[in-house]
Design goal:
399 residues, three-stranded antiparallel beta sheet, two-stranded antiparallel ribbon, 13 helices, binds glycine
């Protein structure tokens, strides 16, 4: 039975008044959260069953109407195991734990990856959530080794971690790289080795200085001269143009600085997150349902494909920002995220059970310019959607 709290009574009075005034009833947010998490659970279990006997495979997207999978070295490999951990936390069902363990284990070799920066995404979402929920010492060992591998990509002359080893850039650092820093701040706390924390905070300060334009939108790629340590090129790889605002890049920036504000307490990171949030929330080309087009500057708006993954990352970040920011903006961040989650939990984005090759969300865009994963489901859209709902549920249940 629902608890008799002031909040519940107010919600009930609002509903009664709204229906008396002939307005359509607004579904209470707690129900939206439960509906979204229940739907994600049903789809994730079907996905886990479908790939259970395909050794080493992890869900990626849909290609030519079929489920597309990857091995553990694709940058997205950790999202499905991470989603399963969140859904185990939500349901408490042993079946979810069994699958979370099975799919996490498929990433075991990622701890030794040193040829790209995505180790943080891959391990912290999978093993990180596993450790948080089980305190399994083996998970801790894998994470510490992963942090060591990631740290090998740091260059003290540039004061940043190198993102990629391909392309003709001298030293490419992409805004997405902010997301990999949480593995390092965690490792610093856990091992007491301050080098991990130093690398993470220095990378974040370098990115803050060089990646942002005066309006707080972000370049995708900044390449550095390895001798001078200064930027040599500011470009895009996945966005519409070098000076455009690629939607997911902006969402990574918002999430990255919010997370680093939480991890370090550094006011500069919190302020940066506030500015990025303002850029996104006030953007004239943000659609009414608050699910961004894949790039804010693509000329085919309003016909351009959306990116539900950007909305999910943004919602999760805004919910965290609403808890860190003690100004009167806090409630606006939460309200905006709630609008995004209502949109994502509507039939326009949330797939019906058994459809969408068992992904929860439809309509994300991976790499538009390469013609890859356009208007498609993506494992990270589902991961950050579930994370956002879990974060919001915690806020509601603590009231
Ligand atoms: N980190 C790659 C992407 O966001 O597509």
């Amino acid at each position: 039975m629902r608890k008799l709290t002031i909040r519940n009574v107010c919600a009930w009075v609002t509903l009664v008044l709204a229906s008396c005034a002939g307005q359509p009833e607004v579904e209470p947010m707690e129900k939206v959260i439960a509906r979204g998490l229940d739907a994600a659970t049903e789809q994730a279990v079907l996905m886990a069953e479908a790939l259970e006997n395909q050794e080493g495979r992890l869900p990626k997207s849909i290609k030519d109407g079929q489920l597309e999978t990857s091995d553990c070295y694709w940058w997205c490999s950790g999202f499905f195991p991470g989603e399963l951990w969140y859904l185990y936390e939500y349901t408490g069902r042993p079946e979810l734990k069994k699958y979370a363990e099975l799919y996490t284990q498929r990433l075991e070799n990622v701890q030794y990856v040193t040829n790209n920066h995505d180790v943080g995404f891959m391990l912290y979402c999978s093993y990180g959530n596993g450790l948080r929920l089980t305190a399994d010492e083996h998970y801790q060992k894998v994470l510490v080794q992963g942090a060591r591998s990631l740290s090998t990509r740091y260059n003290p002359a540039v004061k940043a971690i190198r993102s990629w080893d391909f392309g003709d850039w001298q030293y490419p650092v992409i805004i997405d790289n902010m997301m990999n820093l949480e593995l390092l701040t965690w490792a610093g706390r856990t091992t007491g080795d301050t080098l991990f924390t130093h690398i993470a905070t220095t990378h974040a300060h370098t990115t803050l200085k060089n990646h942002f334009r005066p309006d707080y939108s972000s370049y995708h790629v900044v390449s550095y001269d390895t001798l001078s340590g200064q930027p040599e090129k500011k470009q895009t790889h996945q966005g519409y143009a070098d000076d455009s605002a690629w939607a997911r890049g902006q969402a990574w920036a918002l999430y990255g600085y919010t997370m680093m504000a939480r991890e370090t307490g550094d006011e500069a990171f919190l302020n940066q997150a506030r500015h990025i949030a303002a850029f996104l929330m006030n953007h004239p080309r943000m659609p009414e349902d608050k699910v961004p087009y894949w790039d804010f500057d693509t000329p085919d708006i309003p016909d351009a494909p959306r990116d539900a993954s950007a909305a999910a990352v943004m919602a999760s970040a805004l919910i965290e920002l609403s808890q860190l920011d003690k100004s009167d903006q806090a409630s606006a961040y939460q309200a905006y995220a709630e609008d995004q989650l209502r949109s994502l939990t509507s039939p326009a984005y949330l797939a019906a059970k058994g459809t969408n090759c068992h992904f929860a969300l439809m309509h994300s865009t991976g790499h538009f310019r390469a013609g890859s994963e356009v208007d498609a489901p993506l494992s990270y859209a589902d991961y950050y959607y579930v994370e956002a709902l879990m974060r919001l549920q915690k806020i509601y249940s603590s009231k």
